[in-house]
Amino acid sequence: MFASAASKEMDMLHGSIMDKLILFAIPAALSGILQQLLNALDVGIVGRFAGSDALAAVGMNGEIINFIIFILIGISTGSNVIISNCIGSNNITGIKKAVHTSIMLAIILGFLGLLVGMLCVDFVLTLISTPKEIYDAAALYLRIYLVAMPFIVVFNFGSAVLRCKGDTKRPLYALIFSGVINAVLNFILVALMDMSVAGVAIATVVSYVISSGIVVVLLMREQGYLHLELKELSISLPELKEILRIGIPSGIQSCIFCFANIAVQAKVNFFGPEAIAGASIAQAFVSLNYYFISGFEYASVTFVSQNYAAKQYERCKKIIICALSENIAITLFTSWLTLYFHRELISLVSKPGIVFDFAVMKMQIILLPYILSAVYEVLSYSLRGLGYPNLPTVLMVTGICGFRLTWLASIQHWYNTYEVLHFVYPASWLFTDILMGTAIVIALRKLLHPQEKQTV
Question: Where is 455: in which H helix or E strand?
Fold first, then answer.
């Protein structure tokens, strides 16, 4: 099924741009949404069948899990850029080496994430002031979930390789198949067998084992330069160096983003289990909108990288403008649609009450200005495609982490309410937009007019 669905390679170097960006970004976005729906399904099943404490235990782990996963997946951006550059410069040998190095690196990083995560469970849960009434359940869920780490990383690295040829559909099909398995297992293990948080964690592990296996098989059946041969899995040092040169700053950026969110989560924890549960429900639905943004992130870095390597700089500028305008339009539509139906969505997993009210409050604050986050994300990935791997990380550290920590230490300290806490999100998005916008303008001017003296 999946092999026969192989799509024709997308020509990113010639022809129209806007339609190709859409065709690339939407399946990638839907893949991210489906992954988030798996997490939302965990929250929904637990909320319905295991109670608010179990719901809080699962929900509060979201940012912790993201912290580990995003830094590892962020490194996959390095694979995407390197393979895309090789495609743009027609370096077939480099592509083959980068593909096998990427998958081998994913295996290593996945098991490293599993090991480090297991060692840090108690430390992290204590650090963020996990309420004692949900501590044991939160620790159990996190330990079981971490078993999926190698498979999560392999799936995302494998998907990054396929994206380099414009294939964002087959990873989506793999997620749909594994998502059905997840849903069935969730119902059996939690609703029928009363396994609570352990049940949803086990179901998630099984689903990622399946989806990663499918992506590996797809790469093994690829014809041409993206073909994966398991016996040739190895680390090529030149390719590894380039992947890490670009990927580590991207991973750090994702890590910093999650660190800032964990700091916010620690403040949410002080408002009690009901606030934790409500914020978790809201985040599950808000995050669905983020994946349209991430779809255009992947599109922009892949398209820009190939054209930058082919020295088509004017086309790079057009790609950035198109990706930014399309992303803003789609994010505006999806976020406002989510806001319009936010009470109905929350009611799917929570009955009217304190938890419901906390969820409503967070969604109302965040969703209206959500397009602000679309701007800096696309610009950040575009900068990487233009050969600036470190600059976006510096700007994100300043604009997201630095701003939010400053907010928590000042404004939140003076006005310690749940509402004020969540206003930190749109405020930090706007500040980071200004930083990223300034950087991309200077970078493009330097690229298109090298005779002028510019500093980025």
Answer: none
Q: Which of 370, 366, 374, 391 is nearest to 433 (CA)?
A: 374
Q: How deeply is 110 buried, as exposed, middle or buried, from its count of CB atoms within 10 A (0-12, 13-18, 19+)?
A: buried
Per-residue pLDDT reduced to its tens digit, 48-104: 776 667 777 777 777 677 777 777 777 888 888 888 888 888 888 888 999 999 999
> Which residues fall within 8 angstroms of residue 54, CB to CB, at 6 or more apart?
46, 47, 134, 137, 196, 197
If DSSP codes are grouped into helix, strand and coil, which group holds residue 9? coil
Token look-up 């939160």 returns 138
CA–CA dist 369, 431 (Å, integer): 13
What pLDDT is recorded for position 455?
A: 52
- According to DSSP, residue 8 is labeled P
User: Which amino acid makes up residue 227?
Assistant: H
DSSP class of residue 353 equals T
Helical residues (DSSP H) of 341-399, grouped into ranges = 342-347, 354-367, 371-385, 391-396
Both structure tokens of 124: 């992290």
Asked if 307 and 85 touch (Cβ cutoff 8 Å), the reply is: no
Give the Cα separation of 198 and 195 in Å (integer).
Answer: 6
Token duo for residue 24: 């690339």
Q: How many residues does the chain have?
A: 456
